[in-house]
Every structure is written in C-alpha cells, then in structure tokens.
Design goal:
- This is 1-deoxy-D-xylulose 5-phosphate reductoisomerase.
- Belongs to the DXR family.
- Its EC number is 1.1.1.267.
- GO terms for molecular function: 1-deoxy-D-xylulose-5-phosphate reductoisomerase activity; isomerase activity; manganese ion binding; NADPH binding.
- The chain is of the alpha/beta class.
- 46% of the residues lie in helices and 15% in strands.
- The protein has 16 helices and eleven strands.
- Strand 5, helix 5 and strand 6 form a beta-alpha-beta unit.
- It is globular.
- It starts with a strand and ends with a helix.
C-alpha cells in the first residue's frame, strides 16, 4: 500500500484525489486536512479512515471531534495541524491542494520530512520557488506537478534530454471571455466569470482563468519547476483544452501531451510516477475532434498575464505582490465590492507601489503578503 496525505481534501483537487484513491486498491490515506467544511470532511474520514485530520479553526476541530468520537482518529487545527499532516510519518507523498500562500510552510515541512510532493498549490512556487526548489534538492524530495499544464510539461520532458530544452509552450483555454475586448468586459458579473468553457474548478481559480492571471501564475511556477527563465515560456491559447502543454527542444522538435480535460489524469500520474495506470473515462477521438486550433493571447485586454511576466522577470518579492494582490482583488470581486476590470488594475497598482526585496525569506514573503492586503484595504 502507498500511503498519502492530503492538504485541501474538500476542494476540487482534493475530492478528485480521493476519487483516484477510491478507484485504486493500493492507495491509503493516512492524514487529511481541510478548511472548515467539516460535513464533507467527516464523510471523507468515515470512508477513507485516516489516523490524523486537521481543520483550520479550533472551534471546527472541537465540533469534528464530537462528530467522529466513535473513530480512532486524532483531530488537530491551525497551521500546527497542517504542519503535522504534511509531515505525517507514514505518508510517502503529500498532495498539497490548498489554495494560497498558506501552502508554503506545510510544503517545507513535508520536504524536510523527505516526502514526495504532488503539488497543486501554485502559490507556493510563485512566491517561494527560490526557497522550495533548492530545499527539495537538498532533501531529495521529488516535486511532482499536478496542474494539468505543468504535468503535461513534466510528461513531455520524459521524452527528451532536459539540457536540450529550448522553450516551454504553455497552453491556455482562453477562458469564457476569449476574443472579447476591454469595452465588452466593463459590465461582467460574477456569474459570467464563473462559466468556464472546459474545466470544473473552484471559484477563485475559475475567476483567475477568466482574467488569464492563472496562466501568469503558471508561467512563474514553470520557471521554478523546470529551471527556465520566464522568457523561455510562451503562452499559446488552445481553446479546446486538448493539448495540455508542449516542450520544444533545441533541434526544433516539439513534444506535447494530449488528452481530454480530466484532472484525475495528472493527479494519478503524480501519485504513481513513474508508473502509468489505467484511468477510466472518455478518450480522445480524433475523427470526431477533427481540428485543434491555436491563437496568441491578448495581453492588452488580459494584461494581468503581461504583469505576471513582469513579476517573473524582476523576481524577488514582486511575484508575492502579484499573487497577493490578485487573491484579494478576486475576493473583492466575488463579494461584488469591485468591478471585474478592477482586478488587474489593483494588481498593477500594488506592483508599482512595492519596493522589491531581492531574495526574501519566508517571513519576508508572508510580511509582503500582509502589506499588500493592507495597501488594498486602505485604497479600495
């Protein structure tokens, strides 16, 4: 049995990870963590029987303890609880599927415990890649990407020599507003932005996809995962979401990973790497598909993507500002407190205000996040 721990078990990636566990008889969940959705977490605990579970608040932890008092399980809370789940002794691999920079410290804890990391928390590398990747090399911890695009790049790199890598072609669906101009986005409502054409995702990441900020975060993440400059990453809009990403080698050869839009494929690939397992589900039928189309991204209308390239090039603490500003702006939009087009405006204003720290520590990264939140609170 391969034992795994999961951070963010009640979210989109977490629940699909548990579907993969359910469909395979040789995976066992030893530890699990979620935010405050203890109703779903209780169901997961009763089905998968972890020995350790964490929730964010002690109040919810107390309630969960009462609900599962008939089971042999220990319930913990807060950041200390997340760290305990991340370093749980029996788990071989940690799936980190929580959203936000809250994932940094648990990822570090798992690396120091010499776990493999199935990484779906892009903010960890966006803001702290300069810390995480060297630490993973030091402790011999394998970082396995779970995002469909980064998994596709990782898979494509198995077919060639890493030193011969010339360029990464990071694909994007274009989101629900592909082809629109700024004037057409003035009156976009929350409901409009939550209608992604191809993927079922959480609310925050769906908004990020619509603004193409999510693709910008993936550009910076790719920089750290694959040891390239951001200028070696080219974003290509591929509306059908059939090609999940590609790599181009020095000789001009391009290797791509194709498949139906199903997040369980990259999740399962990470959990069993380097083995491939049968995965139930729809297969590509090229006779029905007939064509795959490509476009260049519109970085004027969706200039959050352009800001991401700027943050990635300049580095230091600026990617933290980009990420934190976006998180807060998206939250304000979802709460209907700002307009849709104010999301990139807020990101740009925060980046212009910030004085870059060249090689920030974890403490400086977290302080930068809070300073960015404070700046937005005082201005918007």
């Amino acid at each position: 049995m391969k034992k795994i721990a999961i951070l963010g078990s009640t979210g989109s990636i977490g629940t699909q990870t548990l579907e993969v566990v359910r469909e395979n008889g040789d995976l066992e969940v030893s530890a699990i963590a979620a935010g405050n959705n203890i109703t779903l977490l209780e169901k997961q605990i009763r089905e998968f029987h972890p020995k350790l579970a964490a929730v964010w608040t002690e109040e919810k932890a107390h309630e969960l303890r009462e609900r599962v008092r008939d089971l042999d399980i220990r319930i913990v809370s807060g950041m200390d609880g997340l760290l305990e789940v991340a370093a749980e002794p029996e788990a071989e691999i940690l799936v980190t599927a929580i959203v936000g920079m809250i994932g940094i410290l648990p990822t570090i804890a798992a690396i120091k415990a010499k776990k493999s990391i199935a990484l779906a928390n892009k903010e960890t590398l966006v803001t702290a890649g300069h810390i995480i990747m060297p630490l993973a090399r030091e402790y011999g911890s394998l970082i396995l990407p779970v995002d469909s695009e980064h998994s596709a790049i990782f898979q494509s790199l198995q077919g060639g020599q890493r030193k011969a890598l010339h360029k990464i072609l990071l694909t994007a669906s274009g989101g629900p507003f592909r082809g629109k101009i700024k004037e057409e986005l003035k009156n976009i409502q929350v409901e409009d932005a939550l209608k992604h054409p191809n993927w079922e995702m959480g609310r925050k990441i769906t908004i990020d996809s619509s603004t193409m900020v999510n693709k910008g975060l993936e550009v910076i993440e790719a920089k750290w995962l694959f040891d390239v400059s951001v200028d070696q990453v080219e974003v290509v809009v591929q509306p059908q979401s059939i090609i999940h990403s590609m790599v181009e080698y020095e000789d001009g050869a391009i290797i791509a990973e194709l498949g139906t839009p199903d997040m369980k494929l990259p999740i399962q690939y990470a959990l069993y790497y380097p083995e491939r397992r049968y995965l139930p589900g729809e297969r590509l039928d090229f006779g029905i598909l007939s064509q795959i189309t490509f476009e260049k991204p519109d970085m004027e209308t969706f200039y959050g993507l352009r800001l991401a390239f700027e943050a990635g090039r300049r580095g230091g603490s600026l990617p933290t500002v980009f990420n934190a500003a976006n998180e807060k702006a998206v939250a304000l939009f979802l709460d209907r407190k700002i307009r849709y087009l104010q999301i990139p405006e807020i990101i740009q204003a925060c980046m212009e205000e910030h004085k870059i720290i060249e090689n920030p520590s974890v403490e400086e990264i977290l302080n930068t996040e809070q300073a960015t939140y404070e700046f937005i609170k005082n201005r918007w």
